[in-house]
Automatic annotation (TrEMBL):
Keyword Magnesium on entry: yes
The protein's name in its UniProt record: dITP/XTP pyrophosphatase
Quaternary structure note: Homodimer.
Alphabetically ordered keywords of this record: Hydrolase, Magnesium, Metal-binding, Nucleotide metabolism, Nucleotide-binding
Phylogenetic classification of the source organism: Bacteria, Pseudomonadati, Pseudomonadota, Alphaproteobacteria, Hyphomicrobiales
Length: 205
């Protein structure tokens, strides 16, 4: 079985490969195939995931797997949300993007944890060349801390403290971020969405 992982984000790619590993699927990324990046014109995570998966499936004639994700900050009316990647600018400066969120939270007087609620969302889409699609979405809730902690993961991980944990995603290994065995796949937005997808259309080998 061959699958295209329709992402150009190395942090996501590493996580998606780990999630797919138990399924014996040979996965190649859109970046490795030299595919272009379609414009993400959707108004929500789900439609942007579909745009990316459909574009890759049409270009390669292979089933294609895309994630659209981001961090939703309650005190900022949901920003950056679907614009999470874009807030880091062309240089992908997530230290600056996190500092920007912190600045806006301070301006709104959001200093206590209850005013610093946020969640990550992951929408996953698998599109087949015949236009069949499967779509799932999941979230993980937590609070935003300052200063950021940890160097693992990617994007906004160092600022995000998931509920019920004492370490940020930036301080966790990717295995912990997915959710530790034996339960597994129970913590991050991406792992939770992947578990739903696996129930629909994947068989372990
Ligand atoms: P592709 O579209 O090529 O997959 P992208 O980075 O542009 O890559 P998105 O538009 O979905 O993808 O943007 C998601 C952004 O949200 C991503 O750049 C991160 O900054 C943030 N994000 C998503 N999941 C995250 C996670 O698990 N940890 C930290 N930040 C995350």
């Amino acid at each position: 079985d061959r699958l295209v992982i329709a992402t150009h984000n190395p942090g996501k790619l590493a996580e998606m490969r780990e999630l797919l590993a138990p399924y014996g699927i040979e996965a190649v990324s859109a970046g490795e195939l030299g595919l272009g990046e379609p414009e993400e014109t959707g108004n929500d995570f789900r439609s942007n995931a579909a745009i990316k998966a459909i574009a890759a499936a049409r270009a390669t004639k292979l089933p294609s797997f895309a994630d659209d994700s981001g961090i939703v900050v309650e005190a900022l009316n949901g920003a950056p949300g679907i614009l999470s990647a874009r807030w880091a600018g062309p240089n992908k400066d997530f230290a600056a993007a996190m500092a920007q969120i912190e600045r806006l939270l301070q301006e709104r007087g959001a200093t206590t944890p209850d005013k610093r609620r946020a969640h990550f969302v992951s929408a996953l889409c698998v599109a087949w060349p015949d236009d069949h699609r499967e779509e799932v979405e999941a979230r993980v809730d937590g609070t935003l801390i300052w200063p950021p902690r940890g160097t693992a993961g990617f994007g906004y991980d160092p600022m995000f403290l998931p509920d019920g944990h004492t370490r940020t995603f930036g301080e966790m290994t990717s295995i912990e971020k997915h959710g530790l065995p034996p339960l597994g796949l129970g913590l991050s937005h991406r792992a939770r969405a992947f578990r739903k997808l696996a129930e629909i259309c994947l068989e372990p080998r």
